[in-house]
Each structure stands twice: as structure tokens, then as C-alpha cells.
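Technical annex B. To support the medicinal chemistry partners, we prepared a structural model of the target in complex with manganese (II) ion, based solely on the information shown next.
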Amino acid sequence: MRILLSNDDGILAPGLSALHAAVASAGEVTVAAPDSPQSAAGHAITLTHPLSVQRVKLAGGFEGMSIDGRPADCVRLAIRNLMDHRPDLVLSGINAGNNVGINVFYSGTVAAAAEAAMFGIAAVAFSASMEGEVDFARIGALCRSVLDCLLAKGLSPGELVSVNIPALLPGQPRGVKVVRQSTAGIEDLYDCRKDEAGNECYHIGTEYSFGPCDDDTDVIALGQGYITVTPLHIDLTNHKQLKSLQSCNWPDKLG
Ligand code: MN
């Protein structure tokens, strides 16, 4: 099996090494990741400069392609140009921090996997809580166990799955829950300060919380200490509203 690994925390991130170590025995692994941290890059791609690629040797004892782009750039460039063969599976992470609820939209980790899904390749994004004990080897082993279950069940081409590992507190993880993505809003605050020139500057706070979430969602299950598995899809269409809008009386000609 050909596996492409990427992330959004950058090629030097410990989560990437941990994922590499955890999945190296599952197939032939290629690494293509951003040369700098790209958290919250979402699904951005680079239009402002050509992407430069450096082949680097990493501390984990493996090689990777370091790219001065966004997570989605790395995956699409690797699939289109850098790999000799199209990968069978794309893995992203392990992100330093969870990606549940609407954070999925901001996440570069999920975007890297989603980019692969757009190519019709099965992809899994891994994100882990950085609270409690942060033992990347243990987190990596948990990710591998989840991946093995997903592979045993079988991932179809273009299938996209987001996996979140809870804080490794005593008694956690409590198991695995397959849950839907919460759509609750994020309650965060911008802190206004003045810069040296006296201009107002808004800093996004590091602390945030979600608004009320339904019980059967990723946010709740993760908070209860479960590993969460959430299947996602690229189709953002609201199918119910599609029917309702199609049934409207649209004029034959506008303007
Ligand atoms: Mn990140």
C-alpha cells in the first residue's frame, strides 16, 4: 500500500514523526508537508509564489519533502507531480490539538486529507488533545489501532474520516465513538491592544469554548474521553434545501 503523509503543523512537528513511526509498517510511506506551521490554514492553496520543494532528512530517521505552501498544496502537488505513483491512502497529522465541531473548517490537518478525498483517494486526518499527558508514541499507537480498524472495514476511494484522540487522562480513552460533527458555534474573544504606532490590534484568544452541542456529536464524545471517528464528505450541498429551492418558481429568464 502506498501512503502519503502530510500535516499542518509543519514537517518538523513531533506529531508527523509519531504518525510516520506508527504507520511505517503498513506500507510504503512518502512524506510531503509544509515547511512551516500552517494551523488554521483551512483549505487554502498558494497562488502568490511558485512552490519550492526541498528533500530533507528528518530526526525520526526518514526523508520527507518540505514545501513552502499550505497543507492542501502539499497533498495536491505530491499526488500530481512528486510521487511516482498515486497513493492508495493519505494520512494527515497527528495534529497538535483536536479538530472537532466547526474547527473542521479551519483545520489544515483535515484540509490535507480532504484534498486527497477530492482526488478520489481514501484519507484519514488524525488530531490529538494536547492536554494531560502528551505521549506522542502512545497517541501514535492509538491512531494506528483506529486506522487498522478502518482498513479492516475497508475505506472506499475518496472516503474521508477524521479521528480525534482525547486527553490522555487516567481512564482515557474510554473507547471509540463514531459520531457526527457538531455545528455549534465557537465562543471566543478578540483582545484589543494598541501597537507601537497606536493602531488598534485584535488578538484572537487562545481560550475558547463551543456553544451548546448535541449529545450525539464529536465535541461531546471527545469531552467524555472517547476517541471520536467522524466520516466527512466534500459535498457541502444542503440536500433538503436543494429540493426546496428547486421547487421555487424560478423565472425562465432573469434580467
Ligand atoms: Mn495544526
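Notes passed to the chemistry partners:
The helical segments are 14-23, 71-82, 103-106, 108-118, 136-153, 218-223, 239-246.
The mean pLDDT is 96.
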